[in-house]
Structures are given as structure tokens and as C-alpha cells.
Amino acid sequence: WLTVTALTVLLHVVPAFTDLEWRAPDVARGAAFAVPLAALALAAAFAAQAGTAVALAALVLAAALLAYVASAFATLRAPALDRTSAAIARALAITLGALGATALLGALLGYAYARGDAALLALAPSHALLGSVAWLTVLVSGVSARTFRPMLGARSRWSLAHVAAGGGLAGGAVLAALSAPWSPALLRGGVALAGLGALVYLADAFDILRRAQAPHAAPRAFVGAALAWLALATAGALAASWGQPVGRAAVVLARAGWLGQMVNAHLHHLGVRVLATLVLGEDDETRPWDLLAAPLSWTAFGTAQLAVVATAAYALGGNAALGIGGGACGLLAVAAMASNARFALRRARRFAPR
User: Fold this and answer.
1) Which of 84, 67, 87 is nearest to 22 (CA)?
2) 346 phi-psi bin (left φ>0, alpha ψ -120 to 50, beta other)
3) 64-79 average pLDDT score
4) In this structure, are residues 237 and 254 in contact, taking their beta carbons and an 8 Å threshold?
5) DSSP letter, residue 21
6) Contact, 259 vs 136, CB < 8 A?
7) Is there a contact between 310 and 262 (Cβ–Cβ < 8 Å)?
8) What distance in Å separates the CA atoms of residue 180 and residue 128, rounded to the nearest whole number?
9) How confident is the model over 94-117, as pLDDT tens digits?
10) Measured between alpha carbons, how far is 259 from 82 in angstroms, rounded to an integer?
11) Confidence of residue 354 (pLDDT cuts 50, 70, 90)
């Protein structure tokens, strides 16, 4: 869900942020369509414990992701119009490179699962670190440097904060991923460096949130929750690197808490703006809060946070009821988000000129 959302959004973000037109756009769009299908096949193969099917699905998924990355690289290597666009293009290329490395490791792990190769399966933490931090966290934190202003009505007061945060997160994740299979000390150093990057990002983002002026409360609430979960996930990752049994909970807090709630925040603002322009045209200026149903927004917010709390508690060793409750709350949150998107689409169509 997180990666497919990111790939879809990047189809619009890359030209909007860099003024570069996609090279081989059909390849990128086709790959973005193939990724969820391959991911579903991979999940089904894991559920069936079918080793060969896992390896094949992982290979197809990796191929689709690498095709997207190749199309993006071909686009981002083109000369940019100005220094800012060039810097954004480089940052996106580095982040997508992390996605490519994650995909390659995923294909290798699929093969290892089918063969029962314990030595290769020891690369699983490296795969998780690259995917969760170097790919998704660096992407979301970097993109939010541009999206917080329209979402929150405030921008960063520290011009180099996103550079320091992104450098720490990416560098720390790569160091931790490279050292995870063989050096606990370097792993801890990499996680600590990524934690410093997260701390810089959190300080800047909380300052922006404190000064937020946009009247739409739901995205502010989702951003605030996401930042709180990132702080807890970072603390959990640091503790896990020192041997504390909190790694599973840290993954839940990072994926469902930090990343999930930040995506929900963007869907509540920028996602609704995309729907509005699709229906009402590129020049439409209808505000997202005029299209969404507030009760559905707050239902999604509340149930999503309950899902994170319950699932993280289950991951810490809680009973099965917590896992079932967390899953049920997560389904309710998704249902509320989908219903709200449908409501916004219907309302936008009512505003459309006859």
C-alpha cells in the first residue's frame, strides 16, 4: 500500500517538482500497475507456504519495481532547468536507488525462502532497513518538505533541516543495512545515525505543525500523530539494535504509525485536491474541507490510531485479542477513508458545471 501509493504519486511529483517530463512513461505506469498484483501474489504464496511460488512472485515484483526505477532514472538524469530542480532530482534518484536495492534484496530473499538458505535469510533485516528507512522514510520526509506548506499553511524556518535529516536517515539506514548481518556495533551506529536524522526532522516538523494556519484540522491531526509515532519508532529501533525485544513493535510503529498516518494526512489534503482537479479541471481551487465529510475524517483518524496502539501492543507480546482488535480498527479506518473519498468525488461532481 505504501509503496504503490508512493509510485503513483511520484508519477505526478517528478514533473511537478523537477520540471522534467517522464521518459518511457508507459513503462512507469505499467510497472506501478504490476507492483500491487505481484505483491498480492507474494502474500498469497507466503500464506500457502509455497516456496517456489514465493520465489517467482518475489522475482516478478522485483522486476516491476526495477522497471519503474529504470524509467525514473532515465527521467531524472536529464538536465534540470535550475539548481533547485537539479537538487530535487538527485534526491529522488538516491531514494529510488534505495527502492531498487530493496527490490533486489527482496528477490534474493524469495530465493532463499524457497531453498531454506539460512545464510541468505540473514539479510532480512537489511531488506527491512532499506525499505522502511532509506526508501519510504527518506521519501516521505523529503516530499513533506514541499507539501507541508499547502497542507499546514506553514513552512520550515531552517533551510538545511531537510538536507541534514535526509542525509542522516539515508546514510544511517545504508550503514545499518550493510552491517546488520555481521557487525552489531556498526548496526547500532547506523541506527543511531538514522535516529539523529529522524530527530532533526522531528524538531523541524513539530515546529511547522506548531505554526500551522491551514483551517483543515484532519491533516494536522494525522501529521501530529505520524510524528509522535516516528519518535516512538525511532526509540524502539534504537532499543532493538541494543538487543531489546521491541523490534517487531518498532516495525508496526514505523509502518502503520509514522508512514501510514503521514500518507493518510496527504490523502486528506493533496489526494482530495487531485480528485477535485480530475472532476473540475486543473484551474479548480475548491478546498479539500469543502469536499470531505468531517465525521468520516475523524472516524478514520481515531480508528487508525487505535489500530496502531493495539497492533504494537500485540507485537510486544500481547494476547491475540489485541491483534484482532488492531486489525479490525485498521479495516474500519480504511473503510472510512474509502467512504470519504467516494463522498468527496460525489460532492465534486455536484460542483461541476453543467
Assistant:
1) 67
2) alpha
3) 96
4) yes
5) P
6) yes
7) no
8) 11
9) 999 999 999 999 999 999 999 999
10) 31
11) low
